[in-house]
Amino acid sequence: MFRKADTSAAWAFILATLLFFIGGLLTTVVPPMVDKSWAKPFKNADPAKGITGELKPLGSLEQQGRAIYQREGCWYCHTQQVRTILADTKRYGWRGVDAPVSTPDEFVFDSPHMFGTKRTGPDLARVGGKYNEQWHRTHFKNPRELVPGSIMPPYPWIANNPAEFKALLAYMQSLGRAKEWRPANDYEK
Ligand code: HEC
To answer: pLDDT tens digits for 133-145?
Structure first.
C-alpha cells in the first residue's frame, strides 16, 4: 500500500490525508482526554518551587479591560503564552528569576483565548505587576516616550479615558499573576 504512494498521486494523497488526521488526533484530541488536569484551573501547581496561588475568573473590571484588549487588536502584536524555550523564560522573567512556562490550566476561563500568533511585541502572559500605573499610562499615551523606537501605536483615547484606562490596567496587572512566581511578591501596582 505504501509503495503505491510512490507511483500514484491518488494514493499519495489518501495516505497523506490519513497521516494528517492521525497526527491531529494524537496531538490535539487525545492528550486532553487522557490528562484531565488540563481543564482544571491552576492551583498550587508546584509548591516545591514556591509557585503558589490559584487561578480565579476575571473580575468585572478586568473583563472590561479584556474587551478593550480585544477591541483594539492588541493580540495582533502580542501573544500570551510563555513557550518552553529558554529565550522565553529568560526574557519574560523578572530580575533574574525565570518566568514559568505557560500551562493549559492557566487558560481555562479564557473565552476566546488570547494566545495570539504573532510576536511583534513582547509576550504579555507574565506582564501583570511588571510596571506600575504611571508607566502604563505614559506607555499607552506614547510608547516611544518610554521605549525609543517602539513600533507600538499610541492609544491616547485609552490613556485619556479614565474608565477605559482603569479597566485595561486591571486586565494587564492580572496577567500571569495566579502563579505568584516573583520573589517576595515583588509586584508593581
Ligand atoms: C503594532 C503592534 C502592536 C500593537 C497593536 C500593540 N502593541 Fe504593545 N508593544 C508592541 C511592541 C513592539 C512593544 C515593545 C516596545 C514597547 O515597549 O513599546 C510593545 C510593548 C507593550 C507592553 C510592554 C511589555 C513589556 O514586557 O515590556 C505592553 C504592556 C503592551 N505593549 C500592551 C499593549 C496593549 C494593551 C495593546 C492594545 C491596546 C498593545 N500593546 C498593542 C507592539 C504592539
So the answer is: 999 999 999 999 9
